[in-house]
Amino acid sequence: MIDYTVDGDGVASITWNMTDRSMNVMNRASIAAFREAVDKAVQDKAVKGVIVASAKNDFVAGGDLVSMLEESKDPARALQNSFALQKLFRDIEKAGKPFVAAMNGTALGGGYEICLACHRRIAADNPKALIGLPEATIGLLPGAGGTQRLPRLIGVSKALPMMLEGKKVDPKAALALGMIDEIVAPADLLARAKAWILGEGQTGHVKPWDQKGFRVPEAANTPKGAQVFTAGNAMLRAKTMGNYPNAQYIMSCVYEGMLVDIDTGLKIESRYFVACTQSKEARNMIRSLFFSIGEANKLANRPKNVPTQAYTKVGILGAGMMGAGIAWAASSVGLQVVLLDSTQESADKGKAYSAGLLDKRIKSRRASEADKEKQLGLIRATTSYDDLKGCDLIIEAVFEDRAIKADVTRKAEAQLEPTAIFASNTSTLPISGLAEASSRPANFIGLHFFSPVDKMPLVEIIRGKQTSDETLARAMDFVKKIRKTPIVVNDSRGFYTSRVFATYVTEGLTLLAEGVAPAIIENAGKAAGMPVGPLALADEVSLELMHRVRTQTRKDLGDAYKADGSEPVLNLMVEKLGRMGKKAAKGFYEYPADGKKRLWTELGKHFPVKAEQPALADVIKRLVYIQSVETARCLEEKVVIDVRDADVGSIMGWGFPPFRGGTVSNIDTVGVQPFVAECDQLAQKFGARFTPPKLLRDMAAQGKTFYAA
Ligand code: NAI
To answer: Among 18, 173, 340, 633, which residue's Cβ finds the most Cβ atoms within 10 Å?
Structure first.
């Protein structure tokens, strides 16, 4: 696990080498082995210095969350463990001989904190390596000295954003920030580390903060520090709305820790770290953002016994916004892409989208001209269905119109092998209905991408009534191939993501119809943790599009169609006032040329604000609970089968607040019984849409939860 050697010049190497894992991670066993090796090196008088290295492709990827969660069940023990780890790193720092981190690849979280404890950090010139303290992104904080050493090393104002945003940077950027000391060619890494130990290291092994008179330049009791913390706190508040206790704890660690000596600072950090591990926010984020996404990426729900499909050539019908994005995603992993549109001009425009993205990458040094040429060479922009011959998969992304979709389905299938899969990227039309145009409905499936495709990591896979297990498995293989995260749902109007996401927007419009002040609605959305308020979101989706989807739904459902409280708002905005949304620069907001959108000043004229306004907390509750209760309905109706997919889809698909863990975890966090009781109250006051489905009532009665405690 940890190799220990000493060479003839008295330089010891402690090499992380966890052969039973894909990456080195810090857990109880590896920390114990590391401790043992460190003690040996420190006690051996013949050892002049130590290289901490890795025998794997990366350095150390961070803490092992499984073991961390296990240990955090007993907070008192967790605190003792944390103190012990801090002591180990302090022993390195005060060893009286130099320690060098030889960072061959990625060093994140605890992995980078090992490097911080060393006296020098030398990184291999490896542009793929990531360096940083990303703990905040899963509700935690750097708890192995990171909050104390990084600000002491690079200054508070540079360290805070690194930790609060959990940024990961490449070695060049890390060097510029002062996070590492030098970059060398990969082949020279160990030799350079050794040379430093035997040279400058023999005198340079006392940390600045262990030298007399050391002061943190931006501590809170300096004029500059006071400024940094005041601005930082305000920014943090605006960004997190107080929803992320770990972010506040990071701030406190740095604020309090920089006013005291490092040993006291490390104790402060340990206490805040353990507090984080006990928070429901961290548990929710670790569960959904780490474990459930991990399972989805490993295709946990893929039907077994279907051989893995290797893809070489895919066809995309419609080179508009979505088709162009999907072409980018497929070509960027080396697949041949046939990008078809009704005119050559449109097809070329779709291909040009990839050229544009590649130009941006070249500018930011993430791609070369050769990469660009190679990737663009994979995309064939065409109007000819003949070119689709030999495609393993077709993804249809033409206009949202049944007749057009049926037409292109038939034309494409005529060129395909009988085994090929046909997928529709429709956002609203039920898949089973679209499959009627297909001569092989078992091979027909929904692959619902999100916009913009190059940024959005989720794909909602929709199984139609006749879709076979084999088609589902092979479609999942494609999603994995293009490095996106799949969730699997059954066919239903709006599927899962659009259906539940719509309840948030609809609730916002309903609140407006009830006379709630627009500013309260929008603030409640943001305070709930959603990326934007529901009215702003409606503008972005386009009021016109929402209106059109409703008209279609009404047509499809006939008497079964039920209008909701948002309908009069939408009708008035679109039909009478001609306010179509953001694209038209006219919606619930105005979009003046200076760029700063503001709520339309005349909204009050059309939607009079009532004298008595609800409390913000009550509005937040409505906006959040409506999404969870609709998700419970999706589970009851078997639109979603796996609760993890529901959680992952809600966070990655439409930005449901990560600290709530997703729409399902949110119910567990509130408690199923209280959630049902509160929904009943909401239903009584505001309507049957809040009525909990039988599934939830049964769970409440039996004291069940969605996830084991
Ligand atoms: P778009 O209007 O940007 O692109 C549609 C493209 O299809 C156009 O380039 C058009 O020329 C082409 N097209 C139309 N009829 C054709 C035909 N008969 N043969 C060949 N090409 C034809 O539309 P967008 O936004 O890309 O949407 C495409 C599909 O993706 C729709 O079904 C939409 O519901 C769905 N979708 C859209 C999302 C979005 O955010 N815009 C998100 C997820 C799905």
So the answer is: 340
